[in-house]
């Protein structure tokens, strides 16, 4: 099983986690992206939505679980090939929520630019922007080092 250990600066990541946890709280009862169904069967749609929500919540919990007491002891998170898919989905849901809640006014080119100068982002959204970017980097590390779509040898 492949695994990646990432050493992070606790004092830099802790404020980002506060924003990420707020986004996670927002997602407890709501999907990051509204589900639409071809059927006009409200019972089926409600059941399916609840299953999607349970899966989303599980993925977000898996991601938040990386930042427990072990992380605050040594600043290290460990990602392996068994949790990489779930972590990718959790990061995506949280990034969408952060974008929806705090970053709607930021142009897409700035959101995807890895070298954005701090002064290009308004003071009141720098924390959410940094959280969004942090989650993006976690996803990139997973994709680069663990290749979740590949079959394990």
Features:
single chain, mainly alpha, 6 helices, 2 strands, 59% helix
Q: Helix and strand layout, with pairings?
A:
Layout: E1 3-7, H1 10-27, H2 42-65, H3 69-74, E2 76-80, H4 84-102, H5 108-111, H6 126-145
Antiparallel strand pairs: 1-2
Helix pairs in contact: 1-2, 1-4, 1-6, 2-4, 4-6
- Residues in helices, as a percent range: 55-70%
Overall mean pLDDT stands at 93
- The percentage of residues in β strands lies in 5-15%
Number of domains: 1
Regions with little confidence, pLDDT below 50 for 5+ residues: none
* H and E order: EHHHEHHH
Structure classification:
mainly alpha
Major sheet: 2 strands, antiparallel
- What separation lies between the terminal Cα atoms? 9 Å
Radius of gyration: 17 Å
> What's the total count of β strands?
2
Strand order of the largest sheet: 1-2
* Number of H- or I-type helical stretches: 6
Shape from CA axes? globular
Describe the structure.
The structure is a single chain. The protein is mainly alpha-helical and 153 residues long. The protein has one domain (3-145). Helices cover 59% and strands 7% of the residues. The protein has 6 helices and 2 strands, in the order βαααβααα. A two-stranded antiparallel sheet has the order 1-2. Helix 1 (10-27) runs antiparallel to helix 2 and helix 1 crosses helix 4 (84-102). The chain is globular and about 50 Å long. The mean pLDDT is 93.
């Amino acid at each position: 099983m492949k695994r990646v250990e990432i050493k992070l600066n606790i004092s830099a990541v802790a404020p980002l986690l506060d924003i990420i946890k707020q986004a996670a709280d927002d997602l407890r009862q709501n999907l990051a992206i509204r589900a639409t169904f071809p059927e006009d069967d409200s019972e089926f749609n409600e059941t399916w939505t609840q299953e999607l929500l349970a899966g989303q919540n599980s993925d977000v919990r898996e991601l938040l679980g990386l930042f427990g007491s072990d992380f605050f002891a040594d600043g290290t998170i460990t990602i392996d090939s068994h949790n990489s898919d779930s972590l990718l989905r959790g990061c995506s849901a949280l990034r969408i929520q952060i974008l929806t809640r705090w970053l709607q006014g930021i142009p897409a080119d700035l959101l995807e630019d890895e070298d954005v100068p701090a002064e290009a982002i308004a003071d009141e959204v720098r924390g959410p922007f940094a959280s969004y970017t942090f989650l993006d980097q976690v996803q990139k590390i997973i994709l680069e080092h663990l290749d979740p779509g590949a079959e394990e040898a």
